[in-house]
């Protein structure tokens, strides 16, 4: 198994550089921190702090309801392994404004760095190809990240990007976990005072 | 499903009330009891229907839809309720307006013992997760119950399960 060297925080920051009106949904644990590390409690981000396995479908619901906005889901490899069926649903529904970015460190970082199946040869990009995603990339280097970023941001999707990252976990910091607050600020920013 | 059931009026009542309530997205894991309602929704060009691989995915989907300003509902059989439990954290922690229509098995007149454990647990487990259960026992209950559920979901911002009794649907007959 080749060693992964990409830094997850830097990679997510690169993908979301000059993000404009891009919306994100992120899964519990590391991915929500990776997104919040750019701008904590930002109103165009909806970070999950639990409900493992629901990030990709929350992203699909948002993408279908806001077809003119780009929606990027950042999911951990553990999260994605828990909801493989959602890739089949997304592949079948074909939302062209949705991108799924799996931040794959091949471990359950939150719970003691136990190895996930992706560290044992299971290829989530292969699953996405099988689920008929029209754009699928595996990213291990900065050059590959540069090539894939415009696709994640703008290519007709659904796009699937497997970001192979190192085990390094970035610093943790205080962020809001009040789901009602997050819902309210997200909806107000997106929909106005409705 | 018998021909008699396929002519029942209550599925159209639910469809009509979903339209009145401006529910524009309908997800489901297919169930025989929901066959007619699913078809009405599929045939409606203004409704987006999403077939799921597991019922819990309908919870995330409805959450995302609500974040984007669209009302969504989940149609499932009682056995699917068990698949949803942890996903319901989303609804409770974020106070997402939600309504699901559950066709009951393991209920009135059930002949398949495998359906009993989950069917009999639907109401207590949903209530433990903070959902409010309303039950339609007969065809005469459907309109009033569904109206009440939609109002509680989208006006009072609650998570509602409308349980459609096996007495209403008709127990599946194994020959």
Question: How are the secondary structure elements laid out?
Answer:
The complex is a heterodimer of chains A (194) and B (175).
Chain A lengths: L7 H8 L7 E4 L3 H7 L8 E3 L7 H11 L5 E6 H6 L1 H10 L4 E7 L2 E2 L5 E2 L8 H7 L4 E5 L2 H13 L4 E6 L14 H13 L3
Parallel strand pairs in A: 1-2, 1-3, 3-4, 4-8, 7-8
Antiparallel strand pairs in A: 5-6
Chain B lengths: L2 H4 L3 H11 L2 E6 L6 H9 L4 E4 L5 H11 L3 E7 H4 L7 H6 L3 E6 L12 H13 L3 E5 L2 H16 L4 E6 L1 H4 L6
Parallel strand pairs in B: 1-2, 1-3, 3-4, 4-6, 5-6
Helix pairs in contact in B: 2-3, 2-8
Keywords (chain B): Decarboxylase, Lyase
Protein name (chain B): Thiamine pyrophosphate enzyme N-terminal TPP-binding domain-containing protein
GO molecular function (chain B): carboxy-lyase activity; thiamine pyrophosphate binding
Structural features, described:
- The complex is a heterodimer of chains A (194) and B (175).
- With 194 residues, chain A is an alpha/beta fold.
- Helices cover 39% and strands 18% of the residues of chain A.
- In chain A, strands 2-1-3-4-8-7 form a six-stranded parallel beta sheet, with helices on both faces. In chain A, strands 5-6 form a two-stranded antiparallel sheet.
- Chain B is α/β, with parallel strands linked by helices and 175 residues long.
- Chain B has a single domain, classed as Rossmann fold, CATH 3.40.50.970.
- In chain B, 45% of the residues lie in helices and 19% in strands.
- A six-stranded parallel beta sheet of chain B has the order 2-1-3-4-6-5, with helices on both faces.
- In chain B, α2 crosses α3 and α2 (10-20) packs parallel to α8 (139-154).
- The radius of gyration of chain B is 15 Å and the shape is globular.
- The interface between A and B is medium-sized, with 37 and 31 residues.
Q: Overall 3D geometry of chain A?
A: globular
Number of H/I helices of chain B: 9
Which structural class is indicated by helix and strand composition of chain A? alpha/beta
Radius of gyration of chain A: 15 Å
Largest interface: A-B, 37 and 31 residues
What is the number of E strands of chain A? 8
- For the record, the count of structural domains of chain B works out to 1
| Radius of gyration of chain B, whole Å | 15 Å
Q: Which spans of chain A of ≥5 residues are poorly predicted at pLDDT below 50?
A: none
Q: How would you write the strand order of the largest sheet of chain A? A: 2-1-3-4-8-7
Query: What portion of the residues of chain A fall into strands of 2 or more residues?
Result: 15-25%
Secondary structural class of chain B: alpha/beta
At the fourth CATH level, what is the homologous superfamily of chain B? Thiamin diphosphate (ThDP)-binding fold, Pyr/PP domains
* End-to-end CA span of chain B: 13 Å
Helicity range of chain B: 40-55%
Oligomer: heterodimer
GO molecular function, one term (chain B): carboxy-lyase activity
Protein name (chain B): Thiamine pyrophosphate enzyme N-terminal TPP-binding domain-containing protein
Organism (chain B): Chelativorans sp. (strain BNC1)
Keywords (chain B): Decarboxylase, Lyase
């Amino acid at each position: 198994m080749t060693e992964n060297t990409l830094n997850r925080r830097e990679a997510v920051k690169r993908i979301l550089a000059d993000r404009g009106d891009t919306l994100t949904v992120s899964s519990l644990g590391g991915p929500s921190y990776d997104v919040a590390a750019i701008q904590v409690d930002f109103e165009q981000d909806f970070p999950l702090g639990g409900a493992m396995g629901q990030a990709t479908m929350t992203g699909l619901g948002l993408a279908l309801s806001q077809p003119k906005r780009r929606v990027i889901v950042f999911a951990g490899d553990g999260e994605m392994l828990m909801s493989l069926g959602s890739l089949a649903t997304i592949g079948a529904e074909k939302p062209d404004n949705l991108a799924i970015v799996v931040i794959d460190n091949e471990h359950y970082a939150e719970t003691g760095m136990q190895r996930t199946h992706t560290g044992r040869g299971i290829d989530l990009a292969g699953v996405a190809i099988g689920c008929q995603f029209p754009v699928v990339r595996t990213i291990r280097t900065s050059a590959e990240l540069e090539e894939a970023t415009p696709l994640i941001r703008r290519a007709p999707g659904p796009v699937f990007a497997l970001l192979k990252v190192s085990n390094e976990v970035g610093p943790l910091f205080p962020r809001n976990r009040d789901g009602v607050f997050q819902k309210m600020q997200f909806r107000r920013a997106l929909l106005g005072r409705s | 499903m018998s021909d008699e059931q396929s002519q029942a009026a209550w599925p159209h009542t639910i469809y009509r009330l979903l339209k009145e309530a401006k529910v524009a997205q309908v997800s489901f894991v297919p169930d025989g009891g929901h066959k007619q309602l699913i078809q009405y929704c599929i045939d409606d060009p203004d409704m987006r229907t999403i077939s799921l691989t597991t019922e819990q995915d309908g919870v995330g989907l409805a959450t995302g839809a609500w974040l984007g300003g669209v009302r969504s509902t989940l149609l499932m059989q009682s056995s699917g309720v068990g698949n949803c439990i942890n996903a319901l954290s989303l609804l409770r922690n974020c106070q997402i307006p939600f309504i699901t229509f559950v066709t009951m098995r393991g209920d009135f007149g059930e002949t398949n013992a495998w359906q009993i454990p989950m069917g009999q647990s639907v109401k207590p487990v949903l209530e433990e997760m903070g959902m409010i259960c309303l039950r339609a026992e007969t065809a005469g209950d459907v309109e009033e119950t569904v109206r009440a559920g939609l109002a509680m979901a989208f006006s009072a911002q609650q998570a509602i399960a409308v349980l459609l009794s096996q007495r209403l649907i008709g127990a599946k007959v194994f020959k």
